[in-house]
Design a protein that fits this description.
mainly beta, Jelly Rolls, about 450 residues, six-stranded antiparallel β-sheet, 4 helices, elongated, seven-stranded antiparallel β-sheet
Length: about 450
């Protein structure tokens, strides 16, 4: 089913409640009338406060309080509630100085002005990176309104604290307001093929939108009748969207991608829609699955596929009186006893090829990912186990080939990978945290800026 999800203000932008409708039906209402820090927000424990634009916050900005006392708080504008109802509350924030402890508190008030404070758990305040406080809070029977507190319990009287993205609703879920992007579709991924002479063809699997309440996803690829998990796409954090780079995508055959969505409790929210792509490549590539930055284009020599064998393990059983036996066997195996002969394009690539099997200081499994075009009679994505690779060097031009004797094996655990784009690469591109925050409109945009791959060295 294709869902249309629309977000809207019920009145003036940034000064009214917000609604989320799914296929025309109201799904959630954010009851905080000014979820983006603007009017109605109050602070304590600081000498001054101001609004700062920061796209790392779901609301696009935050109240920044310059601390001059231990403790303190920031609370949202006033939301109208119904007594006796359970509400899901959420605030985002961070501190510049480590050591503080905070909790999410909801202050309910009745028509006479009497106040009731309901406190969440006290935790260490997030420092540097934005953290989220959330929980479920039940309003007293006579409650008529509420505010959300970023309630500081202890900590230094210096530095700053930023607080934003207030959400109060009967239905749990991620933050939204009337300006949150609308969504059209069944949350199927957007696929982009990248190709270069360094890492080879690969597919970015981008989920810009996911079902409300999604905390993590598990991404799978189906191709050639096989469904396999995408490496690096297991238990992938997905609040605000998610992306994974599939560097084991097959060549010349349709590959379909989709994900299963899970909430914060680990309960499945169902599968996304699927999107397919065919990666066109006439070349063969070999890589180390756990470190796909170790990748090389190679030539698969004709002798590699002269003889291909597999096994259906079992026994022939001879019954009394029978003239012939009966074969009882198990499932057919993958390729066994194969001798691959791979030619390097450049002799200087030999050191990189050797590194795929590890070094004196680095241990990798003796398994390579070999991807070949359809004209090579091998599985499109072959995980090949070889414990004794042989380097063959000959000729005046020092032609380098590798003889790999081994078997088709299961891939290493899909959750294990050294990502091509690291946090160090992103940090190396920007002199300050503020410069980095200003360069991107979202966490997802930052984490998919593959132009920075390898920048940190």
């Amino acid at each position: 089913m294709t869902d249309t999800i629309v977000h809207a203000w019920t009145g003036a932008a940034n000064a009214s409640t917000s609604t989320e409708t799914v296929n025309g039906t109201l799904a959630r209402t954010n009851l905080v009338p000014s979820p983006k820090p603007a009017t109605g927000w109050v602070f304590s424990g600081g000498s001054s406060a101001s609004f700062v634009n920061d796209t790392a916050f779901s609301s696009g900005g935050a109240i920044r309080v310059v601390k001059n006392a231990a403790g303190g708080y920031v609370f949202s504008s006033l939301a109208t509630v119904v007594g006796g109802m359970a509400y899901h509350a959420l605030l985002e924030g961070r501190h510049s100085v480590a050591g503080a402890t905070v909790r999410l508190t909801v202050r309910f008030r009745n028509s006479s002005g009497a106040e009731t404070y309901v406190n969440g758990a006290t935790i260490a305040a997030p420092t540097g990176s934005i953290g989220q406080l959330s929980g479920t809070f039940t309003a007293p029977a006579d409650a008529v309104d509420a505010v959300l507190f970023w309630d500081v319990q202890s900590g230094a009287a210096t530095g700053t604290m930023d607080v934003g993205s207030a959400y109060l609703a009967i239905a749990p879920g991620n933050y939204f307001d009337g300006a949150t992007a609308n969504q059209q579709g069944d949350f199927a991924p957007k696929l982009t093929v990248f190709d270069d002479d360094v890492l080879g063809p690969r597919v970015q699997v981008l989920f810009p939108f996911l079902a409300a309440g999604t905390q993590t996803i598990t991404v799978r690829r189906t191709a050639g009748g096989r469904t396999l998990p995408v490496r690096g796409g297991q238990n992938l954090y997905a609040v605000g969207g998610a992306s994974v780079l599939d560097q084991e995508a097959p060549f010349g055959v349709p590959a379909s991608y989709q994900a299963e969505q899970f909430n914060a409790s680990g309960a499945s929210l169902g599968m996304t829609g699927a999107t397919s792509v065919t990666v066109d490549s006439a070349d063969a590539w070999v890589s180390q699955p756990l470190n796909p930055t170790l990748a090389l284009q190679v030539r698969v020599r004709l002798t590699s596929t002269d003889t291909l064998g597999w096994e259906s393990p079992g026994d022939t059983v001879w019954t009394q009186g029978g003239s012939v036996g009966r074969l009882i066997n198990g499932q057919k195996s993958g390729l066994k006893g194969v001798s691959l002969l791979l030619r390097l394009l450049h002799p200087e690539d030999a050191a990189r090829f050797d590194e795929m099997f590890g070094t004196y200081d680095t241990t990798y499994p003796a398994v390579l990912c070999v991807r070949t075009p359809p004209n090579v009679p091998l599985p499109p994505v072959l995980f090949f186990g070889c414990r004794t690779p042989k380097r063959l060097t000959s000729g005046a031009n020092k032609l380098v080939q590798y003889q790999l004797d081994g078997d088709e094996v299961a891939p290493p655990a899909p959750g294990l990978i050294i990502p091509a784009l690291s946090r160090d690469d992103i940090d190396a591109a920007y002199p300050t945290r503020a410069a980095r925050a200003a360069a991107y409109t979202s966490r997802l945009e930052r984490d998919t800026d593959y132009t920075l791959t390898g920048l940190a060295g």
